[in-house]
Amino acid sequence: MNRKILVIRFSSLGDIILSSPTVLNLKIGYPQSHITFLTKPKYRQIVKMFGTVDEIALLPESGKFTEQLLLLKYLEQQNFDIIVDLHGNFRSSLARTVLTSGQKVVYPRNRSARQRIVRFKDFPATNSNSHTHTHTIDKYNDCLQQLGLPAPARRPVFQKSNGRIAAEQPTVVIAAGAAFRNKQWPVEKFAEVAIKLHHSHQAKIIWAATEKDETPASLKEQIPEDKLSLLSNHPIAELASIISEATITIANDSGIAHLSSAVGTPVISIFGPTHPALGFEPRGLLDEIIQADVSCRPCSLHGDKACFQKEQYCFTQIEPPEVIKKAGRLIAMRSKMAKALFVDRDGTVIVDKPFDSNPDNIEFENGSIEALNKATELGFKLIIVTNQSGVARGYFGIDKMKKFNAALKQKLAEENIKIDAIEYCPHYPSGSVAEYSFRCDCRKPAGGMAEKAALKHNIDLRKSYVIGDKLDDLNLGRVIGAGHFLVLTGQGNENSQRLSEDRDEGRNLICDNLLAAIMKIETLENHFVHY
Q1: Domain membership flag for residue 166
Q2: Residue 161 lies in a domain
Q3: Is the torsion defined by CA of 501, 505, 509, 512 positive or negative?
Q4: CB pairs under 8 A, 24+ apart, for 38-41?
Q5: Spatial separation of the C-alpha atoms in residues 477 and 372, rounded to whole Å
Q6: Angle between helical axes of 20-29 and 136-146 (0-180°, round to 10)
Q7: In this structure, is residue 156 part of a structural domain?
Q8: What's the confidence (pLDDT) of residue 436?
Q9: How many CA atoms, within 13 angstroms, populate the side-chain half-sphere of residue 134?
Q10: Cis (ω within 30 of 0) for the bond into 12?
């Protein structure tokens, strides 16, 4: 269904990035939609990197009321069907009120709950040792629930990067800045981390700063010139590309931490006066937080207030060795990460015989055996990801489904093909078996199955691909930031017509079958730049 949608989020860097999953979910829910994103001029390049926004409308930099009225007049002429307000302040409320639209939704800021956390340390708690809280992304995605849409994307994700493969030498991005000075872990501690990681892991250090940030002299004194890059006020799009090629990022609670998550580079984020319970911690699959258990934090909503203690205990109690230890583990993990092929089962590997759970009826699609052998030669782990709603619908039990998967794995083993995992989702919201009839986080296009396999098999999702015969397979690729292709086997012909209508680049994502997709991937892999 064609929809014209206006999404409003003016600032700031981190908040803009955290809105990317919601915009992707809107595009998945309304694939033929035209999405306009209203923001400040300084965030235009960030929004472009979403890869899901058709038009960017910019607030006038002058702030003049007359120019704002002209903008609203232009937006009114667009005849939006839906307005999604992800800012929820006076200015966004004004736009939401003035503009005509069939549906208008606004995200629940719930500012009072966050203020209770700051003032009274009233954390949402399940027990004395753990806290649960609602992430800002989930609050943004609440707008989708208001529209009756699912929310498969729950992590920041920008379009797939330029395809360069990270160097064998580890590269660490250090971003010691933050929006407020009070949110910055001492710069000399960042420098100590950088120097020791260089010496212990032969890491190249990229020091990303703004003109107001200090660059310690010790960096140049103890790190060779060819192993140290000093970036100051680097253009955000270029910085995103640099971070996407790095091994890890180490940052404060800042927009750069979220930028790193969105391009797929794990970040270690150091929290001081702020707190994850406020809903703004980085949410990448491998992201980590370091924080001190200090009773006075959080002391403000945004970390902008000066510390009232004799020293800033929330930072002084965090020492470089703790950061270095976590960074070392991540560097070691990243050095061994594999790439994977996440391939659909029915209609891609085997002939689609709807709701058939009899292993005797397994029939391979033409070229699929050769394709999987070729993928193995190219160094890909093989993960089958399959929606099996027949369990929830009551067509067959989960044990039968597992036996079918085991038989498939055995038949492939007889062809000398090792399947590293078969991940399945038995759920369906409108099923008849109560145990499996709910909206889950694993049914494609949600990323649950791929993320489970990634954690178990140490897979880099950004170097991986998803192949299937349905749009849900392509959208799984978009949700996890992987490459993705549609095959014309199974239900592929029907879905290819929709894909060509929905997206200009759709034809480039269509392959005759699994083997043709693997051959295209081989070409892409051969064009990657090694450095």
Answers
A1: no
A2: no
A3: positive
A4: 38/6, 38/7, 38/8, 38/9, 38/10, 38/75, 38/95, 39/8, 39/9, 39/10, 39/11, 40/10, 40/11
A5: 18
A6: 20
A7: no
A8: 98
A9: 13
A10: yes
Question: 202 and 326 share a domain?
Answer: yes
Beta bridge partners of 511: 487
Question: What's the predicted TM-score (pTM) here?
Answer: 0.95
Residues with catalytic function: 344, 346
Structure-derived torsion over alpha carbons of residues 493, 52, 160, 266, reported in degrees to the nearest 10: -130
Quote the CA–CA distance of 509 and 514 in Å, as a whole number.
12
Instruction: Determine the Cα–Cα distance for residues 443 and 422; give it in Å rounded to an integer.
Output: 14
Residue 158 in any domain: the answer is no
- Say which amino acid occupies 144: L
Of all helices (H) and strands (E), which one includes residue 174? strand 171-175
Same domain for 132 and 206: no
Beta strand ranges found along 188-303 (DSSP E): 204-209, 228-232, 248-252, 267-271, 288-291
- Residue 522, H or E segment: helix 514-526
Q: Are strands 34-39 and 4-8 parallel, antiparallel or unpaired?
A: parallel
CA atoms within 13 A on the CB side of 401: 23
Which residue range forms the structural domain that includes residue 475? 339-526
- The answer to whether the CB of 188 falls within 8 A of the CB of 221 is no
State pLDDT tens for residues 38-94: 999 999 999 999 999 999 999 998 888 899 899 999 999 999 999 999 999 999 999
CATH of the domain at 271: 3.40.50.2000
Could you read off the pLDDT of 488-515 as tens digits, one per residue?
999 999 998 888 665 555 668 999 999 9
pLDDT in tens, 419-457: 999 999 999 999 999 999 999 999 999 999 999 999 999
468 Cβ contact partners less than 8 Å away, ≥ 6 residues apart:
343, 344, 347, 348, 444, 474, 476, 486, 487
491 closest CA partner among 379, 344, 296, 382: 344
Taking the CA atoms of 353, 357, 360 and 363 in sequence, report the sign of the dihedral they define: positive
Q: Pairing state of beta strands 130-131 and 125-127? A: antiparallel
Q: Two tokens at 232? A: 């100051």
Separation in Å, CA 256 to CA 12, 121, 353? 11, 27, 47
Residue 282 near residue 248, CB atoms below 8 Å: no
Q: How far apart are the first and last CA of the chain?
A: 45
Q: Could you tell me if 401 and 356 are in contact, meaning their C-beta atoms sit under 8 angstroms apart?
A: no
